[in-house]
């Protein structure tokens, strides 16, 4: 029997959690006796919802007592956008098919599901609140940045022009998903603000920015329509990263 997919935090009930966690053998004989679901990061994930679950079981099993639920927006229009661009399906498929094999540390996935339209989905994943969540506004140290770049370079190398890419039909080429025709105008606008607000910009950065502004479409065509091919995160920033140990931010 296919279980309903929650579209609101109030639907994350004890009986539903018991059923889905039994289905993936996260729990065996135990039942979820009580659940406290709290929406978190309300100002993030505009196309979805994130809730932290605190669970109490009827038996003392080796099961997580907290977890994170990520599910589709409660707004029907936003769910349509998520379906149209494949946001929800790619996230579910990543945890189903890629996460067990990538050379990055990713949250454990306890349960995942998505409807046939790709509009409603649910992920129950490991709670990483014991780690430090990055903050793109505060920035990070040189050593943290170097660590992130190194880890993702290894990730890209793992999928670099590999024949396994042909098995990832659910993972489209970027130029088939995103319209880059507005990028030159968007970049020029942001570049002007950047130059006005930032002080002491090195000459070579200014030179690169000016040259990029003149060749945006050419660069994008080269990056997204010609080899080599690899798996990309495409939303890599500090807010989406967790750190075990961080260096002090150097100002």
Characteristics:
251 residues, globular, two-stranded antiparallel ribbon, alpha+beta
Question: How are the secondary structure elements laid out?
Answer:
Blueprint: H1 14-23, E1 32-39, E2 48-57, E3 66-72, H2 76-84, H3 87-98, E4 109-114, E5 121-126, E6 132-133, H4 142-159, H5 183-197, H6 203-214, H7 216-225, E7 242-243
Number of beta strands: 7
- SSE-based structural type: alpha+beta
Mean pLDDT: 89
Helix percent band: 25-40%
Query: Ranges with pLDDT <50 over ≥5 residues?
Result: none
The main β sheet shows up as: 5 strands, antiparallel
| Alpha carbon gyration radius | 21 Å
Overall shape: globular
Write the H/E string, N to C: HEEEHHEEEHHHHE
Beta-sheet strand percentage? 15-25%
Q: Termini, distance in Å?
A: 56 Å
Strand arrangement in the largest pleated sheet: 1-2-3-5-4
The count of helical stretches stands at 7
Structure description:
34% of the residues lie in helices and 16% in strands. The chain has 251 residues and is an alpha+beta fold. The N and C termini lie far apart (56 Å). α5 (183-197) packs antiparallel against α6 (203-214). It is built from seven helices and seven strands; from the N terminus they run αβββααβββααααβ. The strands form two sheets. A five-stranded antiparallel beta sheet has the order 1-2-3-5-4, with helices on both faces. It has a two-stranded antiparallel sheet with strand order 6-7. The chain has helices at residues 14-23, 76-84, 87-98, 142-159, 183-197, 203-214, 216-225; strands at 32-39, 48-57, 66-72, 109-114, 121-126, 132-133, 242-243. The protein is globular and about 65 Å long. 16% of the residues are buried.
